[in-house]
TrEMBL record:
Catalytic activity: L-proline + NADP(+) = (S)-1-pyrroline-5-carboxylate + NADPH + 2 H(+); L-proline + NAD(+) = (S)-1-pyrroline-5-carboxylate + NADH + 2 H(+)
Gene3D superfamilies named in the record: NAD(P)-binding Rossmann-like Domain (3.40.50.720), ProC C-terminal domain-like (1.10.3730.10)
UniProt gene name: proC
Domain Pyrroline-5-carboxylate reductase catalytic N-terminal: 11-104
Subcellular location: Cytoplasm
Name used for this protein in its record: Pyrroline-5-carboxylate reductase
Source organism of this protein record: Roseomonas acroporae
Family, as annotated: Belongs to the pyrroline-5-carboxylate reductase family.
EC number: 1.5.1.2
């Protein structure tokens, strides 16, 4: 990540959950100026209000102030909106880097919407970006310069860790595993809470237990140097209670098979969203 006050002017297209998380991270990193295209302006306006004039929110591409010359165009709209929306940014993306976080949308597909000569980086962040603990995997298309890649690294690094891959095809399983990953973890909280209630634990206590157990385990994992399996084994006393639960969860047809199927389904969906 480059230092604070080094982020140049950025055009952000879409300021929902992920776009908003990115913008808020950039503001912390000393963003000089951004124009945000967002038709539902409330959240973007709230961020702009805290930006001391650094962020201007407009409803559509036609309202971008004349003369605004971003160094990166960041696409944070839904993949289904790409075909209608992205071509409006063909001119502004000329000579600068376009960073897309859209699930499934390929670098080749973006070239077809923007122009073949455009520099495109495709990336997949996740929602812990909102607390600067995101994990993003990025892939640079042909013609992206070292400086453009460094800028994208800084933009993504403002909200967490960044890893780069050469093979764009990896972005589909990445989308399944880390892009959607927080949802599976939150589902685990929901299921633990539900099971606790079924076993007679009062709802308020069940809720606190489930949330705190997952959040605390994540915090422990974050500071541990060892493998997750070692942390699991540290909980699992021989002939104890956890061992019984894990025998159910780790049966081949249980979590191992279910997680494989779920990740394959999400990977397939990412591939379907391509173009
Ligand atoms: N939510 C997540 O966990 C992740 C989402 N993504 C990707 O990020 C992108 C955005 O997802 P979210 O932030 O979750 O969706 P969202 O629905 O919260 O945000 C999308 C935003 O785009 C705005 N928008 C719609 N049409 C527009 C247009 N023509 N011009 C400008 N803005 C427009 C919407 O008003 C909305 O605020 C998607 O492509 C998704 O695949 C990537 C990683 C994780
Ligand atoms: O569900 C989705 O399509 C997006 C991509 C990863 C997380 N949310």
């Amino acid at each position: 990540m480059t230092g604070a006050a080094s982020l140049p002017p950025i055009l952000l297209v879409g300021c929902g959950r992920m776009g908003g998380a990115l913008l808020s991270g950039w503001l912390e990193q000393g963003l000089t100026r951004a124009v945000v295209v967002e038709p539902h302006a409330a959240a973007a306006e709230a961020l702009a209000a805290q930006s001391a004039g650094r962020v201007r929110v407009v409803p559509d591409a036609d309202s971008i102030p004349a003369g605004f010359a971003p160094e990166a165009v960041v696409l944070a709209i839904k993949p289904q909106e790409a075909a209608n929306t992205v071509p409006h940014y063909a001119a502004l993306s000329s000579g600068v880097v376009t960073l897309s976080i859209m699930a499934g949308r390929t670098i080749g597909g973006l070239h077809r919407l923007l122009g073949e000569a455009r520099a495109v980086v495709r990336a997949m962040p996740n929602t812990p970006a909102a607390v600067r603990q995101g994990f993003t995997v990025a892939c640079a298309g042909e013609g992206v310069t070292a400086g453009q890649r460094a800028l994208c690294d800084a933009l993504l690094g403002a909200v967490g860790e960044v890893a780069w891959v050469e093979d764009e095809a990896l972005l589909d399983p990445v989308t399944a595993v880390s892009g959607g990953g927080p949802a599976y973890v939150f589902l685990l909280v929901e299921l633990l809470q539900r099971a606790a209630e079924k076993l007679g634990i009062p709802p308020d206590l069940a809720r606190s237990m489930a949330r705190s157990t997952v959040a605390g385990s994540g915090a422990l994992l974050a500071v541990s140097r060892g493998e997750a399996a070692e942390l699991r084994q540290a909980v699992t006393s021989p002939k104890g209670t956890t061992e019984r639960a894990l025998a159910v969860l780790m049966a081949e047809e249980a979590w191992p098979a279910l997680v494989d199927r779920a990740m394959a389904a999400a990977t397939d969906r990412s591939r379907e969203l391509a173009e």
